[in-house]
């Protein structure tokens, strides 16, 4: 039987990063993955394929809607969905192969099969060959799966989750998206650009409800301009399929009025659930919470001291970079180091166009906590860079402590803000004041100038360009 210092179950961004960091720190490491490709949800059916489709559909939309205003005449523009999806798959394939390469480079033993606990130091692997390995420590990184509503039968054909939406055989005529969160809006925008009518049914009274209210408002305005329809404050009560037609029933939770939508495809995007099926947690008595998430302490250690858990399978934001930080943290703890994650500084991004990005506290959270704050906001339309590219929607908003001027939150909507948010994270990591950002030189013309201007607005209410 092979013995390891660490076994990692699950090869998503949490698991593979944990395995690499363990190997870098000199531990003999095994990685167990039930699928034949590495990379987990993120690389196979999440972050990477969704961004590939967002980019492809964005190019198409630019060609049909925006090239002309740049003086580019291309005539009849068509797209080929099959090719678009094949390109997406090739991006995924190259990326997952890259993880295989990294495992080899770091001398990590990869086992393909379902890992399940035999006891606290032995893991059975059910794959092509059934075998058992021994591990002094184990990291559970088994991620998450799409959740649904109890009355919905996901048939994976027309009533689908994000996984199927990444490989549809045709563009829906009318796609109803249940859930106006990240997945619903990103994938809804892909199919809207490709010509589908898209209706988003959202239970809350705003889209992306966990982000700053100003971002929800701005993104809603832009999506409505793009002719996406919304039924906010609507809870779905039934989804019924009759042949190719689906009826979605919902109730307006403010007015108590029932409505019906007809669609040929329904994307169910109401969140994801922690995935622990097949792990045999009971064999070792690992505790999960009422939502099925593996319970961990501040060191991400489960109630069994040599077993840790990271990523989507535990509490917190279901984000690839959060899982990665946790993978690194556990590896370093196992090596005797004292790492730390500031969860307040994990950024959140929605890759629609315009993009949406946030770090730190929202205005709603500061109000609720009774923190005295100042707010500075700068519109993208006032930037020369935005006018040059034609991306004038959005803004940067900086929230700072009223007394100390320390930056407490940075919230953005606009072109390339997914990349720009790193400036907010860096500033907050070093506990910068809004004035610190305002006094830094930002290259001209760039979208980043909006960060400087918002900081000026927050510090002294003296932006230069509005
Ligand atoms: P996962 O990536 O889910 O990996 C878990 C792995 O464990 C899987 O490969 C699974 O097969 C394996 N596994 C499970 N049980 C066993 C077992 N018993 N034995 C062996 N293997 C097992 N996040 C972002 O930060 N940015 C984005 O842009 C983004 N886009 C997304 C788009 C979509 C459509 C979706 C669905 C998600 C997106 N996410 C994004 C979320 C991101 O994918 C997850 O937060 C991330 O993958 C979590 O990583 P993880 O390592 O915890 O788990
Ligand atoms: P989400 O939590 O972002 O959004 C789900 C939405 O569904 C919420 O707005 C919620 O109010 C709504 N909802 C819940 N029940 C409903 C009902 N009965 N009727 C109508 N609406 C209802 O979840 P998601 O979009 O499914 O994404 C799952 C996870 O994947 C998220 O945690 C997210 O972090 C991650 N993800 C991240 C990215 C990214 O980082 N860009 C992209 C995709 C997914």
Automatic annotation (TrEMBL):
<dbReference type="GO" id="GO:0004148">
    <property type="term" value="F:dihydrolipoyl dehydrogenase (NADH) activity"/>
</dbReference>
<dbReference type="InterPro" id="IPR023753">
    <property type="entry name" value="FAD/NAD-binding_dom"/>
</dbReference>
<protein>
    <recommendedName>
        <fullName>Dihydrolipoyl dehydrogenase</fullName>
        <ecNumber>1.8.1.4</ecNumber>
    </recommendedName>
</protein>
<dbReference type="InterPro" id="IPR001100">
    <property type="entry name" value="Pyr_nuc-diS_OxRdtase"/>
</dbReference>
<keyword id="KW-0676">Redox-active center</keyword>
<comment type="similarity">
    <text>Belongs to the class-I pyridine nucleotide-disulfide oxidoreductase family.</text>
</comment>
<keyword id="KW-0520">NAD</keyword>
<dbReference type="InterPro" id="IPR012999">
    <property type="entry name" value="Pyr_OxRdtase_I_AS"/>
</dbReference>
<dbReference type="Pfam" id="PF02852">
    <property type="entry name" value="Pyr_redox_dim"/>
</dbReference>
<keyword id="KW-1015">Disulfide bond</keyword>
<dbReference type="InterPro" id="IPR004099">
    <property type="entry name" value="Pyr_nucl-diS_OxRdtase_dimer"/>
</dbReference>
<dbReference type="Pfam" id="PF07992">
    <property type="entry name" value="Pyr_redox_2"/>
</dbReference>
<keyword id="KW-0560">Oxidoreductase</keyword>
<keyword id="KW-0285">Flavoprotein</keyword>
<dbReference type="InterPro" id="IPR006258">
    <property type="entry name" value="Lipoamide_DH"/>
</dbReference>
<feature type="domain" description="FAD/NAD(P)-binding">
    <location>
        <begin position="4"/>
        <end position="327"/>
    </location>
</feature>
<feature type="domain" description="Pyridine nucleotide-disulphide oxidoreductase dimerisation">
    <location>
        <begin position="346"/>
        <end position="455"/>
    </location>
</feature>
<dbReference type="InterPro" id="IPR050151">
    <property type="entry name" value="Class-I_Pyr_Nuc-Dis_Oxidored"/>
</dbReference>
<dbReference type="InterPro" id="IPR036188">
    <property type="entry name" value="FAD/NAD-bd_sf"/>
</dbReference>
<dbReference type="InterPro" id="IPR016156">
    <property type="entry name" value="FAD/NAD-linked_Rdtase_dimer_sf"/>
</dbReference>
<keyword id="KW-0274">FAD</keyword>
């Amino acid at each position: 039987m092979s013995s390891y210092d660490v076994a990692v179950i699950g090869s998503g961004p949490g698991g593979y990063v944990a395995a690499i960091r363990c190997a870098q720190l000199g531990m003999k490491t095994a990685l167990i993955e039930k699928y034949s490709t590495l990379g987990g949800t993120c690389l196979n059916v999440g972050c990477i394929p969704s961004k590939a489709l967002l980019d492809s559909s964005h190019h198409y939309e630019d060609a049909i809607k925006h090239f002309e205003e740049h003086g580019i005449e291309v005539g009849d523009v068509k797209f080929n969905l099959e090719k678009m999806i094949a390109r997406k798959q090739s991006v995924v394939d190259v990326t997952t192969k890259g993880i295989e390469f990294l495992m080899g480079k770091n001398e990590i033993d990869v086992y393909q099969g379902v890992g399940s606990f035999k006891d606290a130091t032995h893991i059975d692997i059910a794959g092509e060959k059934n075998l058992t390995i021994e591990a002094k420590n184990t990291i559970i990184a088994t991620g998450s799966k799409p959740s649904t509503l109890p009355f919905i039968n996901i048939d994976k054909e027309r009533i689908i989750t994000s996984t199927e939406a990444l490989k549809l055989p045709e563009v829906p005529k009318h796609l109803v998206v249940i859930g106006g969160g990240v997945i619903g809006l990103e994938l809804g925008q892909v199919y809207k650009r490709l010509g589908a009518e898209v209706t988003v049914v959202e239970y809350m009274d705003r889209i992306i409800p966990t982000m700053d209210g100003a971002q929800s408002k701005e993104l809603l305005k832009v999506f409505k301009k793009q002719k996406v329809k919304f039924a906010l404050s609507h809870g779905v009560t039934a989804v019924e399929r009759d042949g190719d037609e689906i009826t979605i029933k919902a109730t307006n939770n403010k007015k108590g009025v029932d409505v019906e939508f007809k669609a040929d495809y329904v994307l169910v995007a109401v969140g994801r659930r922690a995935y622990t099926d097949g792990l045999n947690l009971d064999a070792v008595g690992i505790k999960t919470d009422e939502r099925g998430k593996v319970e961990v302490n501040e060191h991400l250690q489960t109630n069994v001291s040599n077993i840790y858990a990271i990523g989507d399978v535990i509490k917190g934001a279901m984000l690839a970079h959060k899982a990665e930080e946790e993978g690194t943290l556990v590896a370093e703890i196992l090596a005797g180091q004292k790492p730390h994650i500031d969860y307040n500084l994990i950024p959140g991004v929605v890759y629609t166009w315009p993009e949406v990005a946030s770090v730190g506290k929202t205005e709603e959270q500061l109000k609720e906590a009774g923190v005295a704050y100042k707010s500075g906001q700068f519109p993208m339309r006032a930037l020369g860079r935005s006018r040059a590219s034609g991306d004038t929607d959005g803004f940067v908003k900086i929230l700072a402590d009223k007394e100390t001027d320390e930056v407490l939150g940075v919230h953005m909507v606009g072109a390339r803000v997914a990349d720009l948010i790193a400036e907010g994270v860096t500033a907050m990591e070093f506990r910068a004041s809004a004035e610190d950002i305002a006094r830094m030189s930002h290259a001209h013309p760039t979208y980043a100038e909006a960060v400087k201007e918002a900081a000026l607005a927050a510090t002294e209410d003296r932006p230069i360009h509005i």
